[in-house]
Write a structure and sequence with these properties.
- The chain is α/β, with parallel strands linked by helices.
- A seven-stranded mixed β-sheet has the order 2-1-3-4-12-11-10. A three-stranded mixed β-sheet has the order 5-6-9. A two-stranded antiparallel sheet has the order 7-8.
- The chain is built from five helices and twelve strands.
- The chain is globular and about 40 Å long.
- It has one domain: Class I glutamine amidotransferase (GATase) domain (Rossmann fold).
- The N and C termini lie close together (about 10 Å).
- Bound molecules: glutamine.
- The site of glutamine has 12 residues, from helix 4.
Length: about 190
């Protein structure tokens, strides 16, 4: 299995380390020609959603990635990656907009922007969740399903082959969310 990790900006390196632990290969996507490689799934990491969206356009990768996701390429967005997937982005700009979720950017404010908790994620179990100036999901619609809530706010969702978490599983040593994504990919094949 070979996973592309969008590596334009943000926290991408930690994802490949976890995938390696799980026995999956990954490669970094830094420019358009990187998209020519065989890719079974895509990870959009945390960072700044506005910057990432802008770079995707400047590098002429935006439409290609959006089309592939619409056509069923399994994708996992963490934090800023969640915002990029959301079809509504309060306090930000709608980017790829492939997932029927509404995201509120920097939803926890700037002072208390970073924290960690342990909470249940459906089909995954109880996991550590690290939030860094994170969004949360204010609504899911269509086929999107909420997978986790913290303090009454939705922090993880899935819609078909798309998975999004407001938190950063790649910054913990718990590999189960990535394992769940790899299982989504296997099921999609
Ligand atoms: N605050 C960032 C944004 O709005 C997301 C933060 C993160 O990815 N850790 O894009």
């Amino acid at each position: 299995m070979r996973i592309g990790i969008l590596a334009l900006q943000g926290a991408f390196a930690e994802h490949s380390a976890i995938l390696r632990q799980l026995g999956a290969d990954s490669f970094e996507i830094r420019q358009k020609r990187d998209l020519d490689q065989p890719m079974d799934g895509l990870i959009i990491p945390g960072g700044e959603s506005t910057v990432m969206g802008k770079l995707l356009k400047e590098l002429d990768c935006f439409d290609d990635i959006q089309t592939r996701i619409r056509n069923g390429l399994p994708v996992f967005g963490t934090c800023a990656g969640l915002i990029l997937l959301a079809k509504e982005a309060e306090g930000g700009k709608v980017q790829l907009g492939t997932m029927d979720i509404s995201a509120r950017r920097n939803a926890y404010g700037r002072q208390l922007g970073s924290f960690s908790v342990t909470a249940e994620m459906k089909s995954v179990g109880e996991i550590p969740m690290v939030f860094i100036r994170a969004p949360y999901i204010t609504a899911v619609s269509g086929n999107a399903e909420a997978l986790a809530e913290v303090d009454g706010k939705i922090v993880a969702a899935r819609q078909g082959n798309q998975l999004a978490t407001a938190f950063h599983p790649e910054l913990t040593d718990d590999t189960r969310v990535h394992q769940y994504f790899l299982e989504m990919i296997s099921a999609a094949k």
